[in-house]
Amino acid sequence: MHFSTLTLAGLAASASAATFYVDNKCTFPLYLQSKHDASSTGVITLPAGKTNAFNTYIPGADVKQSSITVSRQPDLSSPLQAVYNTGSNPDRTYYDLSTIFGDPLKAEGFELLAGSASNGYSVSCKPRQSGDCPNTYSPSNPSGKNAVFNQGTNANLILQLCSSNGNSS
């Protein structure tokens, strides 16, 4: 698993197949951990205004899922979690967001963007959302009804934290 910190200007230029971007638009640092099967990046500090790119091979359906955990705390307490994997029949990237263990950015909002606006479903939680975020695994939706989405294989995913618009595409 490889990761790097990018500036927003470099985001579009560095787009490649199966890349998961975490874009910190917050005014404070966040703490991330990427896991794939039994491997992990360890805790990464993502400074305010920076983007991390996790250039990782997304495995076929016979391999365990990958995830990115986001927290305001270095111990990763009360995290937001993004989960993704790729199926081989058909070739699709599956993804979801979970606030079951916490929603550290409830006041600021966040979005998970997939593909382009015309062919990917974006999951959004508006700033200061009343109740649980829709279309996520959450305390009021622990089974994840309407929370798992898919996109063509090798789709780039962008988790935008402290998003200002909170609108779904």
Automatic annotation (TrEMBL):
Signal peptide stretch: 1-17
Keyword presence, Cell membrane: no
Any Pfam family matching the protein: Bys1
Key words of the record: Signal
InterPro entries, per the entry: CetA-like
Protein name (database record): Bys1 family protein
